[in-house]
Amino acid sequence: MSGVFKALSDPTRRRVLQLLRERPMSAGALADQFDVSKPTMSAHFAVLREADLVHVEKAGKSVIYHLKLSVLEEALMGFAQTFGIGADAPDPKLPPAKPKEAKS
Questions:
Q1: pLDDT in tens, 18-28
Q2: Where is the HTH arsR-type domain (predicted)?
Q3: Total-model pTM
Q4: Whole-angstrom Cα distance, residue 31 to residue 29?
């Protein structure tokens, strides 16, 4: 999960994910949205791939990026559960909570 949060810590990578939420995009089309060098964008793409937040598809000479929303959702749900936010079920990796005593 730390890889996901490392990836999300950068505003450029968050913007890439927002763009990919709309539709899959080529590396070039994504890079055109930012005022940074191609090698810098390549490094951002590598972090997103390492965090498993994107799926890469080769289409001829193009590289097409797809958002892996399930990985992002899983990381965010795990984070929320850590703080007891919106979690109906306890995290299975944690010891079970003690039942509350009923008031008389």
A1: 999 999 999 99
A2: 1-87
A3: 0.72
A4: 5
